[in-house]
Amino acid sequence: MSKLTDVPKRILIGRALRSDRLGETLLPKRIALPVFASDPLSSVAYAPGEVLLVLSIAGVSAYQYSPWIAAAVVVLMFTVVASYRQNVHAYPSGGGDYEVANTNLGPKAGLTVASALLVDYVLTVAVSISSGVENLGSAVDFVIEHKVLSAIVMILLLTLMNLRGVKESGNLFAIPTYVFVAGVFIMILWGAWKGIVLGETMQAPTADLEIKAEHAGIAGFALVFLLLRAFSSGCAALTGVEAISNGVPAFRKPKSKNAATTLLLMGALAVVMFCGIIALAMATDVRMAENPAADLLRDGVPVGESYVQNPVISQVAEAVFGSGSFFFVLLAAATALVLFLAANTAYNGFPLLGSILAQDRYLPRQLHTRGDRLAFSNGIVLLAGAAILLVWVYDADSTKLIQLYIVGVFVSFTLSQVGMVRHWNRHLKTEKDTAARRRMFRSRAINAFGATFTGLVLVVVLATKFTHGAWVALLGMVIFYGTMSAIRRHYDNVSREIAAAEERPDEYVRPSRVHSVVLVSKLHKPTLRALAYAKLLHANQLEALSVSVDAAETKALKAEWERRNIDVPLKILDSPFREVTRPVVEYVKGLRSENPRDAVSVYIPEYVVGHWYEHLLHNQSALRLKGRLLFTPGVMVTSVPYQLASSEAAKKRAKKRQDWNAPGSVRRGPVDTRRKEPTGKA
């Protein structure tokens, strides 16, 4: 890699790490919690607000149902956490929901889960960053005025931090996550003390506003549907739970135990925070509306377009701590920061899942390779690109984006738990130990309840959110499914095509003869080296081939060839239209058609240069020729490199990193740095 790109890369992401240092990047529980659980922990900053936004359709009277909705979300949270604790013990390899479904329900179910998770990870980044921008925008006008730009910049910064490695990014994220959790708990405890013990009245800044109900006096089936929709919005608090199941390999040993403990701790924290904020929102008379400019009224008059609706957590903090107080500012800053960092859950889940899918040949193999910092860099970059596209299309509006959310999560939840039931059924058929069977029965019951509950929620989510944007998420899942299926078919077809057969087919038979052709443009050192190398391989027939595009140059080449008395016949091809590639390709094809059992070996002299811009000035004809000849059966293409003096600069730069030999350095021989000429013979 040239110095032009290598130095900035090292400054941004740090020095490359050896593969044997992978163990140093594994996470202890105190770091794994903010890395893998920042999404569900931070969702308490917007999930309560989404519940109230939906209920506001029926007016402020519908807010009385919010505690019941919160209770349903809590039951679901504990169900999912308990279910996934079984997953991480049974499947600690890191495949998570995909591996469970693929192993127990078949490849189609596994691919469905993988598609759902990939879509959801992209949405996690888009929603978290957009929500963080909105929270920060309540204090910084520039951010809210340039939402899309601010969101894209945050995605790029987050991408850069993750490219530095999981552990290093985890250390960066731990402090703001813990400050946020501590701030929310202090707010809940202080609010409870002021309201219950001291008997003080706390009022949110929107407490004096009225809500103009879109459907006043709603009842019956319509009310049930509204409550189900509010519940499905509140289920945003569960997003990211599955990331711990996918990220088990990133934990320190004992991996399964540490992952299960982290899951339990995350669930407990998220439940307390979610319920506490809902309770304080009710106690402080928070008012929210889907269209605040028209539906929020002050003294019977709409607040207008200039009104900025702050998130629920911001309003509650102002009521509890007071506007401008230290704890209010601290919590506001921590909330905005942790919402940005919540996307880190996806930055750890998406690349890991992408690596496993690439290993199973459902995604390009490059996604399975770790980068310089032992992170799955290609997956990180792919996730960032998809999230930026989504943020740009939806104008970084979290209210619009969240309607796409959750569908993928509950598809993976449901199929994963059904798969776990099958897993336990299969093991119970062979297990004889009474104690082990008792544990399996208990685990199966937990997973069966989880599958039933999450399946019902999936139906609710689809019914209530489909027309509000969930269809886009489903479309994304279909696109991912089709793309990954096509990639797998391609890899399978290639594997069958290149598989070594037991018998010896025609392509194993040694060619009758080898006809070698050395391409010549001018008679210089690279050409002489290519001729010498071709002679060394003792082909049955050897000739030099040149294309005449300029009569004077061709005449000079013939004269020089004869003067040097080179013992290789020179063949000149006429090209009246000054083409080089087509005459060479047609000539080589002609050799093949005359003697189909012969192999044709084409040698192409190439320059080795040391600067990126020099690649634009050399070897373009060689690249075009190789591109055409590689598609010709029975033709072997060999590049014969010749190092120009500038290549020594690249060699010296690389020498600082490791011992390195440039292509062709052995054949070129030692270099006299004073004369910049090779001392060995060509």
From TrEMBL:
InterPro entries: AA/rel_permease1, APC_K+_Transporter. The keyword Cytoplasm does not apply. Residues 669-682 have a biased composition (Basic and acidic residues). The chain crosses the membrane at residues 65-84, 109-130, 142-160, 172-193, 218-241, 262-283, 326-353, 374-394, 400-424, 445-463, 469-487. The lineage of its organism: Bacteria, Bacillati, Actinomycetota, Actinomycetes, Kitasatosporales. Keywords: Membrane, Transmembrane, Transmembrane helix. Its main location: membrane. This is Amino acid permease. It is a multi-pass membrane protein. The keyword Protein transport does not apply. It is found in: Membrane. Residues 647-682 are annotated as: Disordered.
